[in-house]
Structures are given as C-alpha cells and as structure tokens.
Amino acid sequence: MRHRTATRHRTAGLATLVAAGALALTACGSDDDDTDTGSDTGSTAGTTAAAGDFPAGSTMAELADAGTITIGTKFDQPLFGLVGPDGVPEGFDVEIAKLIAGELGIPEDGIEWVETISANREPFIESGQVDIVVATYTINDARKEIVSFAGPYYEAGQSILTLATNEDIQGPDDLAGTTVCTVSGSTPEANLLAEFPDTEVVSFGAYSDCLDPLRNGQVDAISTDNVILAGFAADDPTFEVRGEPFTEEPYGIGLALDDTDFRMWINDVLEASFADGSWVEAWEATAGTVLPTPEPPTIDRY
C-alpha cells in the first residue's frame, strides 16, 4: 500500500548493500523469512525473497521490504473465501493469495486480510486500501479501465441455486417469471439484467444475504458463479445447483491500474504454480474437496 513507500525505499537501499556482499546482514534479515509461510495445503511459494531481489522502486520491492501485504478477499463464500473459526479466511482464493505473498518473502502473519464485497473491490484498489484483491473477481473490459488484472487463475461460469424441492427451475431457460437473488455490482447481476428481462432481480451486498430469502421462499433462486453456489450447496443439502454454467467468468487478481511490472510478476508466479503443482495442491485442499480438479487456465498477458 502506498503509505509504506518511504520506509520501503530506505530498506531497499540496505538490500542493495546486502546484495553487494554484506552477508551478515543477509543472515539477520532472512531468519524470519525462512519460517513456514504456507498453510497445510503445501504452498511451494518462495520464502527468502527480499527487496533487493526486485527492481528498485517496484511494488514487489516495496512489499518485500515492508514484510507485509494487505489483501482483499471474500469472507462469506465457502470453498473460495470464508472466515474460519479462528477469524482467518480460508479457501482457494486465500491459498492463491498466500502463494503470491510467499514469493515476496511475506509469511502468513504478514498478511492483513480485508473483506471485499463485489461493490467495493475497485474502490479499495483505487484508494490503496488493499495491495491486491483475490475475491472471485471476474476479469472484464469495463473493470480493466479502472484496475489491472493478473491471471486468470480459474475459469468459473454463472449458474443457478434453488431449493432441492423446487422442480420448476432446472436451468436458465426456466427463470422467466421468477425472482432471482444476486449481488449488487457483480457480473452475475449485470448478466441477469441484460439477458433475462422477464426475471425479477433482487440484489444484496453479499451472496450469503440471499440464503435466508431462498430458504423462506422470498426468492426462487440465487444466481452467481457455479463454484460459489457449489460451496453453499455443500454446506446445506436443502440447496441444489441446477443446470450447466451459462457464462464464462475468468477469475483474476485485481491490482492498481498501470502497475504493469507487478501484474506481469504475479502472472509469472501463477504460471509457476501451474507448473510446479502448487496450484493443484491449493485447489484440492479447498474447492477440490467438493469439485473436480480442472486444468489451469491460460494467463492473459494483455
């Protein structure tokens, strides 16, 4: 985040001396970085990175120098981003974020997690409240005018969740005349409004806000990405995902607009995780407990 810049630059100068041969300082500076930065999912992210390993003045150098990173994620989405009993979020998005932090030499206790709902992801990035957002964040052209995206690291698709007892809705063709709940400011909301004019759309701040209205019969269905709905269905057998996904939702990592070096570096980290198996390991320990393991997507280096 930008308020760290002055401190980071001071330490970046020290890192240059370290790289030139101050081995004693290297030993002192790397002891903390050698601690375990991954979770039980087996993150293989590097743990010995330092500011001097990155171009001077880059976001990577600043974050490595500070030893901390602020990451926005969802707090209410099973499998991808859900706050656990210890108050710390867990899920596939969280593990992807940890991979990135680890490659900066930042341990888990150096991550500050900030809840980001669909409506505040761009404002939080623009204002510098977060360094990156990893939050089931669909890459699209409109958003790319406001923020940058690394990735995608996963390809989702919009689907439908109903009560298991509801036999009337089997797919998107059955939504006409129904009431569907989604989230304000989300891609699914925009899709519903544009493509399903005969459907009444009810929008809330978070997808978890739609669960009780569905249980109580106030809405007929919830519509968002299939992986989010699968998490809700796994937690509550009274829910059921219906039909095949009817959109393509590439999930990306949001960061500041025009920070091309940081975006390309995160893309490198993602591609390395695809190749070394850490991406699959993260998936199988989280979303993969419910969903089959997909092939990693192709990075879009726009």
Task: Describe, in plain words, how this protein is organized in 3D.
By secondary structure, this protein is α/β, with parallel strands linked by helices. 33% of the residues lie in helices and 21% in strands. It has 10 helices and 13 strands. It has a 5-stranded mixed beta sheet with strand order 10-9-11-8-12, sandwiched between helices. A 3-stranded parallel beta sheet has the order 5-1-6, with helices on both faces. Helix 6 links the parallel strand 9 and strand 10. Helix 1 (5-20) packs across helix 3 (59-66), helix 4 (92-103) crosses helix 9 (260-276) and helix 4 (92-103) runs antiparallel to helix 10 (278-285). The longest helix is centred in the last third of the chain and has 17 residues, at 260-276.
Count of DSSP-assigned helices: 10
- Contiguous low-pLDDT stretches (5 residues minimum) are 1-46
- Strands of the widest sheet, in order across it, are 10-9-11-8-12
- Average pLDDT for all residues: 87
Estimate the strand proportion: 15-25%
**Class derived from helix and strand content:** alpha/beta
Q: Tell me the overall shape.
A: elongated
Helix and strand pattern: HHHEEEEHEHEEEEHEHEHEEHH
Number of strands: 13
Using only C-alpha atoms, the radius of gyration works out to 20 Å
Instruction: Report, as a whole number of angstroms, the end-to-end distance.
Output: 24 Å
Compose a concise summary of this entry.
This protein is α/β, with parallel strands linked by helices.
Which descriptors apply to this entry?
alpha/beta; 302 residues; five-stranded mixed sheet; disordered N terminus; three-stranded parallel sheet; 33% helix
